[in-house]
# Entry
Amino acid sequence: MPKKAPVKAKSSAPADVIQVRGARQNNLRGIDLDLPLGKLCVVTGPSGSGKSSLAFDTIYAEGQRRYVETFSPYTRQFFERMDKPKVDAIHGIPPAIAIEQVNNIRSTRSTVGTITEINDYLKMLFPRVAEASCPECGKPVRPESAESILHTLLYHHAGAQALVSFGVPVPKGTKPEDFFPFLQSQGYLRVWLYGELLRTDEPASLKGKKLPAIVLVIQDRITLASENKARISEALEAALRLGKGTVSVGVEKSKVENRKSKSGSPASQPEPRVSNFEFRAFSTDWRCADCDLKLPAPTPGLFSFNSPIGACPACKGFGRTLGLDIHKAMPDESLSISEGLVRAFGGSTYSESQDDLERCARKRGVDLDTPFCDLPADQQKWIIEGEDSDPERAWKRGLWYGVKGFFKWLEARAYKMHVRVFLSRFRAYTTCGDCDGGRLKKEAYNFRAAGRTIADLWNLPVTDLLPFIQSWPITGSDSAALMLRDEICARLSYLDRAGLGYIHLDRQTRTLSGGELQRVNLTTCLGASLVNTLFVLDEPSIGLHPRDIGRLIGVMESLRDKGNTLVVVEHEEAVMRAADHVIEIGPGRGDKGGTLVYDGPLAGLAEAKDSLTAAYLTGSKTIPLPEKRRQVSNFEFRASSPSKPEKSKLKKPAPPAFKPGFLSIIGARQNNLKNLDVDIPLGVFCCITGVSGSGKSTLVHEVLYRNLQRLRGEVCEDEPGRVRSILGHEQLSEVVMVDQSPLARTPRSTPAVYVGAFDTLRALFAESEEGRALGITPGFFSFNSGEGRCERCAGTGYEKIEMQFLSDLFVTCPECSGTRYQPHALKIKLDGKSIHDALEMTLDEAVAWCRSGVSPDPCEPGILPGSKTQSKRFAQLARQLSILCEAGLGYLKLGQPLNTLSGGEAQRLKLVGHLLNSPSAGKMPASHESGKMPDPPRKPLLLLDEPTTGLHFDDIALLVKLLQRLVNEGSSLLVIEHNLDVIQCADWIIDLGPEAGAEGGQFVFTGTPEDLLLCRESWTGKFLAEKFENRNSKSESLTLAEAPAKYAASKLRASNLEYSNSISIRGAREHNLKNISLEIPRDEFVVVSGLSGSGKSSLAFDLVFAEGQRRFLDSMSVYARTFVEQMEKPEVDLISGVPPTVAIEQRISRGGGKSTVATVTEVWHFLRLLFSKLGTQYCPRCEVPVQKQSLGAITQTVMARLKKGPCKLLAPLIKARKGFHTEVAEAARKQGITTLLVDGELRDTMNFKKLARFKEHNIDAVVAELDGSLDELALRPHLEKALKIGKGTLKLRLPDKSFQVLSTEMSCPSCELSFEELDPRLFSFNSPHGWCPACRGFGFEVAAHGATPHRGDVSQLEAELEEERRLSRAADEDEENGERVTCKACNGSRLNATGRAVRLQDRRIQEINAMSAADAAGIVARFRFDGREAVIARDILKEIEQRLHFMKEVGLGYLQLDRSADTLSGGEAQRIRLAAQLGSNLRGVLYVLDEPTIGLHPRDNERLLDTLSALRDKGNSLLVVEHDDDTMRRADTIIDLGPGAGRFGGEVIAQGPLKALIKDKRSVTGQALREPMKHPLRGSRRPILGTGVPPVSSKKKTGKMPVPHAEWLVIEGAHANNLKSIEVRIPAGRLTVITGVSGSGKSTLLHQVLHPAVKAALSKKKAATDSEPLWKSVQGAGQFAAVYEVDQSPIGKTSRSCPATYVGIMDDIRKLFAQLPTARARGYDAGRFSFNTDGGRCETCGGNGVIKVEMNFLPTTRVHCEVCHGLRYNSATLEIEYNGKHIGDVLRMSITEAAEFFSSQPRLARPLQLLADTGLGYLQLGQPSPTLSGGEAQRIKLVSELSGGVSRSATEKLRGLTNTKKNLYLIEEPTIGLHISDVARLLDILHRLVDDGHTVVVIEHHPDLFAEADYLIDIGPEAGAEGGQVVASGTPEQVAKHKTSRTAPFLSRLLTQGRA
# Structure
């Protein structure tokens, strides 16, 4: 049938769209669709039409897949990546987030507060608004200063006399005669003791009393008056300093007039001995000075239960611990004391406690016969808590010790086994006693805001919390607090608008329903302010009452208005009317759907003729009401109203009576249910409704269902809800919860199997003429175990191809072609159809086929040969399948796997299953025929929760029809539902409410739908009345053009709807950022510039990127986020408008010796996959393809082996797969296997323990123990079994624990060599399965001991990592020459012989790996595959071709795939990452780049900038940290940070286009652009003599001493990599710069030729290597003393290494401190001031300054050491000060500050000043080395060399020595990370090195550096094979004139500019 064109809206499609072309996923029929961006789009259509296939499996899958591709391969393996959709093309898609209804969260740490991030903002705001109080005395606690104390004293006690004092601790046993003279010697004459003011010169005045522990020493006695402010302030400061932060001020209680003298001095007044002074203590920290109790500072960590600083130590922040569950001890609170309230007292063992309870209760006046639930609250507490906290003491005194006291007493006797067993019955996870469930440390509860702790706030419902926080008084000056409060209130309002006002922040996420979690996630995304994101939602209205729909629409519109696109799969009419764009898929279901029925605004939907949605929205189709409702007789309203208390609570109520025909729930009190009594009628269609959160699910799921399970003796995994009793359950035959969970997980289960029709179908085929002739049984056609099923695919019809780096692929089985059966089974026909043909029919087609096979007359010739039995079977099959058709499932195929059904389809299939199992199927119960309700027989009760989920209007009509039929067949239905179409069709309605949460849990109404219309209190009644009114209205219009939304959307504040196309940052304080606020425009090319260390990376990476990535990752699964190394939440008040972010930075790992270009680009991963899936194994010995080996040949091989000794016969089960693998052991046990070989260890299959889930395992089944006594006949069955289990492969485990593999699939025809199945690990040189055993995957020869562990405590992995580090390019000095010799065994391919022998279309993998990216792309493009191989290769080839193509796009096509990654420059590594991003074809993404022009020649820079501009033009944003002026000229906006570096930076100096920046006088960047350097900076270049080249000068002679003429270093015949046997001449004592386009061979010349050549020439010993040198000869090396390679490798790998230690000044600093008088007096040497050794360092943190803290279920974190406060040293060491600074302060100084501080110490000042001159003045002396960039590390090394050279020169002059030999320094790209102004400083450093006589050779692309050179060598002319030649050499002026040099044009332009 020709495909109909979809109806399109008349309005033209917007230009900014997501283009979907040829979508064929599942049943979609090549849909073409333009989805408008920035709109709310609704996808609707009948169930099974293809909505989810379009929205989730196509659009979301592609958007999510492309963004996940931007992560590393390691990270990607943890993401739940969806399969690549079947679609021709999708263009312009943003990163996608799916907000579904599935709740997979299991962690109790995850709460509503954490996932919405409200807790994060609350913990930052709470310290600002909370007030602290002392837990002992209750007085306020706050940090004071001398100024605040002075203000308090003058304000409250003006004019009074005061004593300012401080406490001095008294050593134990000290006498007053010794203590008082000590104070007097310090100048203190008065102390306050025992209420008296005593003089220290009168010890006898103490009258023999002992000294207290602390004596108050009087600092000053003064009158509190304003004229004495200076003196009071001085006294307070001194007292605070001497009292270590604490001061006590005694104020005279009675004010004495005229006490002050004119001078304010009390000296003339008589000194009182005893006076009426009242002392008040003050403290400068969070300490109660009265109680001397210190509180922790209110940091955000203190109020976080996910932080070790704040988490309760008892429960680790979970809020629960394993302990007594009072509900288990008293399970039935409806019992009285006399009826056995306490279950533990019921037996004879502890009956004495029952007697004690009754005796004490009579004495206290507690009624023994009143149910516990009816007792007053104080009596209930008395029963539980008792009268004394000590149960033993209470029992002895005859008091009641409480139920808890009884168990506390038992706990003390838990050493007895029977007591432990007894206690276990009453234990459960209960509220933590230490934190009372608040999850925080006790100290956190000392802080309160408006009388509430933060834990109190977490437990308030949103509706109460929102106004409470809004009421907090916050001054306008505290902008950060206002911003935080507004953010919290906004997120709370989002929750309230989404209909979640009843939940509280501490509610665990795992307890949320699917609908609740979806709405929480929706509000989280809204609060996260993500923009440019595609949100795909799955029916967000599910679980919402019609009253709350409008609020939800408001939330979705707000998310759209922030700049996002929403695609919502929805059937709710109100959501459709609010949509900007409607897409209907249909017109039918299954194969009858999958086409685009309509695409456009809702107004045009009525024009679509095939639209079912339009038919229902316009009213032309409706869901009919039942003609007559079933009557509910003898009903009496039993629901209790909590608002009307009983007259006498102490009177025992009469027990509730049983009511036949009803299921009665008495006293339901779970969650918010308020002691409800409810009668549920049986035999009718009963619906429970009410607003969202009113208690419906609690009543049905927790109270009714779980308690019925327990009463019926069924297993109930969850704790039943609290209820007094449930009556009438004896009337039920069964209780079934019919949900939408999947029916099956395997493809073998089908609709025919589920309803039992497949048994009938198989019997029909077995009884056919051909079946009877062959004598087959129905079991023959079973695809679970039948003989007719295909053995290769085991009856599934397909094979699973594991694609390790892609989604697994399911391909049609090549043997059965997807039919599931063997050919001889398909030959059996029934009515011309094979069983496969029958299973391919839809249910509708199958019913028609069955009915055609029913013969009314057995003798009449028909389709079947006159068989009455077969005719009956056809009729039976037709009946079974017709019910499915009536349920609207006729479009399903008989053999369709059940795991492909939607939730709604699965639920209807379950209902059909109950219909078929009904004993009265097809009969109307007699009670309905007579119209009476006699005592009902035992009937099934079906419970359904929101059965309309995922259902279209038309599907709901089918569902209602099915539900009515179920009741007619004898079932009772109880349905939770909000859908008005279902509610109106019910016989009986129970309405809960009236509101949600604490305001719900009550009965609003019970009765028929007609009676509900009259209930004014019912929200459901209001909306149902409106629906009935519309139904009965005859004037309803049949158009959708101007139809208003039924429910008004709740709009947000106008301020929130303002759409700003920028990233808004407020209060950024990360690192050195100084609380900056700025707007970064989106969809633009934005450059962040500024001095080195000014805060650029902090802004771009640590702030914007960290927040953008974190917010998007928060939408991913919890499992994935566990393994992704997310960046910490930055220190910033607010960031909004952040799109999903991708970082492309220089600091990416380039790997060790095993990483190559192919592995970094992931080309190698996909090549491995391609060769393992489609390659052919060749024998490495014989070079012939391997062939299948027969069983006989294998038997002969094993027999020959057994003659040499016994062995174990193994069958491989699992190879290198992660998982628990318990199912593998169970399956092996069922096959008779008793022992498994697991990772080299033997384990029993019985009681097999789970393996480590995330570790790769190898498992083999031990089939038999073989020895030489076995003959061939006895051996053969064992081999057959092993081959069957191992799927054609077996192993022999030899006595030496080695293996021999034998295979029927992979065996060499010429020799006995067998091979295992090809696996990607065979081609991995990081795995023993694939690496060359000689070099272990390095590709070059390694040391003899290699990576083999030679110590028992070193693992293989650790040894491998150690070997990689040892063999990296920065080799240790003991590595001879650091030279790599190619491995002779693998010839550098890194693979073993087996992997090297595999071929794919006559190509080996190592051959492709040895090619350049451009050449490899050509080879891959020529691969051709057909059939099944084409399906497998399709996605793999796309991945390879795409990566190779974009490598060429960014100018890296010259790189060889097998080139070691550690030889790549930072720029090359970054561009490789950039190449991967180009292939993602995303839009709306923010790309953050870190100096992408590094390593690029100016010519290549233009290409890169074109690439970045193309990314922007695709609709992305770019934030680039860059100093390059060309990049700035291409930028749309420049943000300049400064004004200085380090702590002197961190401010926004200028923002705008380049012109504005140049004009800004404050901008250092603008100044550098205004005033470019003029070369040569010194006025003239050093002369290059010996070649006839005269010196070039742009100025007059400077008068300096003439530079001696240069000797030459000459390298001849350099031929490494692409170098073409070139000769290179380098002048000695000059600055030489090597330049050329990227990839021309510069790094090769420097690292592989120049450095090793000079090093070899200078070496006294001849290098012990067999490899030929990469040069012919070297001349002139003898003039150098040494050669140094100053690279960008880290200067240290641990936090103990820092700039001070590397440069060597730390030793001098330690010596300086050790020479101080105080240090010498204490005997401290220099070692005392080392944080690496014992003695002076802080032992708590081991000198690290931070402490590693392990947190359960959270990443390990590091916190500042609370003992040393991060200073690394102990307090005694920190008492030694130099010029007022201790050594901890010194290490925190910046280099600039330290240079000034140590200016009087030349040994320290010289290197520090050099560091500052190099632009590193912002670094701290003690900054950990791992935090330094490569450029920073390189400059530190330069300064270290320069400093050492200066010191050596000074030493030589003092000694009168003359050393003519100087050093040769080789430096690669030292300008990395340098600002333009810092380049001038670097040039000065390089010139100073040359002035000192050294030779400096630099590889550089920065124009200012190569224009400053004395001599230039230009390599080229192009990259790769087209480079490797010396194009030009000479002075810059000479090279600038060269015609073919790619550097010449740029150099000429710069020199011309300098002369101008």
